[in-house]
Amino acid sequence: MTPSILILLPWDPAIRLVYEKLIHERFPDLPIKTVGSVGEAETAIRDADIFMAFGVAVTKDIFWNASRLKWVHAFGTGVDGITDQAGLKKDVIVTSTRGIHGAPLSEIAILHMLSMARNFPRSVRSHDRKHWDRFRSKTLQGRRVGILGVGLIAEALAPRVKALGMTVVGISRSARSLPGFDEWRSRDDLAGAVADLDFLVLLIPLDDSTRHIVDARILGAMKKGAFIVNIARGGVIDEVALAQALTSGHLGGAALDTVHQEPLPAEDPLWNAPNLIITPHLGGFYDTYPEDSMEQISFNIRTFLSGRFEEMINQEAR
Question: I need a surface site. Which of 18, 140, 173, 300 has the fewest CB within 10 A?
Fold first, then answer.
């Protein structure tokens, strides 16, 4: 029996079918269905052998009735929203997309750092008022940036911010020799690791050990006027404590490309925190992302169809 694929993409209908079209071009005999909501996926997954989605889009446990399910693929690098669901059977293969996020995530990290240092939102608001507002801003050159979570994305980011004249500090469980990094500090002493940083970039995966790893204590350990950038997951930072640190003036600013609830409701108080930039998870949401990920997806589909499950790449240990 030919396995069927269910895709969950809560995107604009104009681009929702992009993965379905790309997969169909390569595997025309595979039945593929794309849905735009978790409710639709919860019903349709009963007939699916393969399920594909971004983990953050799986906002409820839809796996309880997925009796045929054999493989789940995360279109993103993170598998939270998938592997943390109790209904997902232990024998279901879980894979993710890796190795294509370095450049786009580095770009949005630098965009946020420059926007905060140069206070770009102030200039945009002045432009909207047709007001000439000239003020002194900060530079990135000569500043210290710490990267919490050193994986493939951090390896791409470090040389780029190093080229801007920054001192780059890796914060990890172990020190390694990697291009772009000037110093290493232990994640086990996170308060000490962040104490002299001008910028802290969060790239650490979200799991039980990292949820709210940046809490009020860590934020308080950062030096006054420092900036923080979260391009990991909203859950790795205590956003209530972050808002308090911004309101008190202890932090110079923060930029969040991921938040605890996506989309963030209009009534959420986080919107009102001062010196805060929120972008709607734009880091890896770029024009050729689906095409760039298809080599990995196609390889795993071919391998899955041939029954060589152990050869599938980017498998998550479960």
Answer: 173
Burial class of residue 269 (count of CB atoms within 10 Å of its CB; 0-12, 13-18, 19+):
exposed
Catalytic residue among 281, 311, 316, 318: 281
Based on the domain organization, do 127 and 201 belong to the same domain?
Answer: yes
- pLDDT one-digit tens code per residue, 110-122: 999 999 999 999 9
* Crossing angle for the helix pair 120-128 and 102-117, to the nearest 10 degrees: 70
Rounded Cα distance between 226 and 243, Å, is 14
Residue tagged active-site, from 20, 40, 107, 262: 262
What is the model's pTM? Answer: 0.91
Expressed as residue numbers, the domain containing 210 is: 102-278
Q: Is 281 a catalytic residue?
A: yes
Do 212 and 112 share a structural domain?
yes
Mean per-residue pLDDT, 40-59: 96
Q: How many domains does the chain have?
A: 2
